[in-house]
Specification:
By secondary structure, this protein is of the alpha+beta class. A 4-stranded mixed sheet has the order 1-4-5-8. Strands 2-3-7-6 form a 4-stranded antiparallel sheet, covered by helices on one side. A two-stranded antiparallel sheet has the order 9-10. The radius of gyration is 21 Å and the shape is globular. The longest helix has about 35 residues. The protein contains 11 helices and 10 strands. The site of flavin-adenine dinucleotide has 23 residues, from helix 4, strand 1, strand 3 and helix 11.
């Protein structure tokens, strides 16, 4: 039995998983160390993923998507992350954040205009929520988009935009009405070519170094009225709903990284000898690999339970936060143990486990830090308690 086979998948989901596994092992794995080392965004890989129908997996075919479910999308992110965290993050941010809000909250005209190119992988989609002074506290946004009668005027700065240099469209949150708190925030689809918009500094990072992370500048950008997403004042809620779905994919990324590190470790401990026996034959090693697998399988079940709930139209916000929190911490534990079991070789760049360890750290920060996940989970617990009682 191989990893992942413990899930009850449909034939279609299995086929998708196997296709992505094949692509990841043959096309992404060979370049994973190079894109990390050179901090290069692998444009050619995303173009190929577009041709394979992977850039719009969970969106309907009428908008250029593959018409599959969220479970299939999470499986794809997991398979890619097994070999490359950078590419997995690019894929997850594009699908959940770059396309997600347009699909979930866009008008029919907006969906028809923007989604087909995004789903075909002709360009990436960007998401601008975080600002220099507004990360976890996203409601503290300072970017403004004022109603000027026949258009809106966008001013401000967004930071850490994943895929930003390679995007042509960005979903951006901004204040449209001051003094109304989070009810004064709206979201807009912004195009790269518009006057006053500029992609700024590219961040140099600890991990996911082949993923593109940039600052976005908006200086008197004229936004057409028809590019407002939904209604004025709905933006904050839209962003939170978007992040609920995104958390499943970041959890799947952490799961994939943990599995990748686990598989590399199995290969290593069964090949390396010390004191005249395989490292795998020491009980201390066996306890570690047993714990690794137990944690991986627990994370898998939480992630795919959240994905199934989303696919079935159930409330999944609490499950997504729990799955992301747990999987990202499993990723941290498993990749760290993987380095330990490789000894000195685990600490140097010749082996992929140190890259996986660095890449995983992002999963404890992006789309809500672990502390924010705990807040979301605790709020859910208390809301339920207050409703149902003892
Ligand atoms: C590689 C990368 C890619 C990213 N991609 C995107 C993207 O595409 N689009 C986008 O909009 N953003 C993106 N982000 C931003 C990311 O979502 C934020 O970094 C994250 O939400 C945390 O915000 P912050 O960095 O401002 O940290 P802060 O909010 O300043 O947090 C600092 C610390 O304080 C803690 N903290 C804050 N508030 C509380 C609280 N109430 N209770 C307890 N602890 C608290 C945090 O958990 C953290 O430990 C990306 C970030 C990275 C690193």
């Amino acid at each position: 039995m191989s990893l992942g086979d413990r899930l009850p998948l449909t034939e279609e989901q299995k086929m998708l998983r196997d296709m992505v596994r094949d692509f990841a092992q043959n096309k992404i794995k060979p370049i994973a160390a190079e894109i990390d080392e050179t901090e290069r965004f692998p444009e050619e890989i995303f173009a190929e993923m577009g041709e394979l129908g992977l850039m719009g997996i969970p969106y309907p075919e009428e908008y250029g998507g593959a018409g599959m479910d969220y479970t299939s999308y999470a499986l794809a992110v997991e398979e890619v992350a097994k070999v490359c965290g950078s590419t997995a993050l690019g894929l997850a941010a594009h699908i959940s954040l770059g396309c997600g809000p347009i699909y979930l909250f866009g008008s029919e005209a907006q969906k028809k205009k923007y989604l087909p190119d995004l789903c075909a992988g002709k360009h990436m989609g960007g998401f601008g929520l975080t600002e220099p002074q507004a990360g976890s506290d996203a409601g503290a946004t300072k970017t403004t988009c004022m109603d000027m009668g026949d258009h809106y005027l966008l001013n401000g700065t967004k930071v850490y935009c994943t895929n930003g240099s390679y995007s042509k469209t960005y979903v951006v949150s901004a204040l449209t009405e001051k003094g109304k708190g989070t009810r004064g925030i709206s979201c807009f689809i912004v195009e790269r070519d518009w006057d006053g918009f500029a992609v700024g500094k590219k961040e140099r990072k600890l991990g996911v170094r082949g993923s593109d992370t940039v600052v976005l500048h908006f200086n008197d950008v004229k936004v057409p009225k028809e590019n407002l997403l939904g209604k004025p004042g709905e933006g904050f809620k839209q962003m939170l709903i978007t992040l609920d779905g995104g958390r499943i994919s970041i959890g799947a990324m952490a799961l994939g990284l943990a599995e990748g590190a686990y598989l590399e470790t199995l290969k290593y401990v069964t090949g390396r000898k010390a004191f005249d026996q395989r490292i795998a034959d020491f009980q201390a090693t066996q306890f570690k690999i047993a714990d690794m697998l137990v944690n991986i399988e627990a994370a898998r079940h939480m992630i795919f339970d959240a994905a199934r709930k989303k696919d079935d139209g159930e409330d999944f916000s609490q499950e997504a936060a729990m799955a992301k929190l747990f999987a990202s911490e499993v990723g941290a534990k498993v990749t760290s143990q993987a380095i330990q079991l490789h000894g000195g070789y685990g600490y140097v760049r010749e082996y992929p486990v140190e890259r996986m360890f660095r890449d995983n750290k992002l999963t404890e920060i992006g789309e809500g830090t672990s502390e924010i996940q705990r807040l979301v989970i605790a709020r859910g617990i208390l809301k339920e308690w207050d409703k149902v009682g003892a």
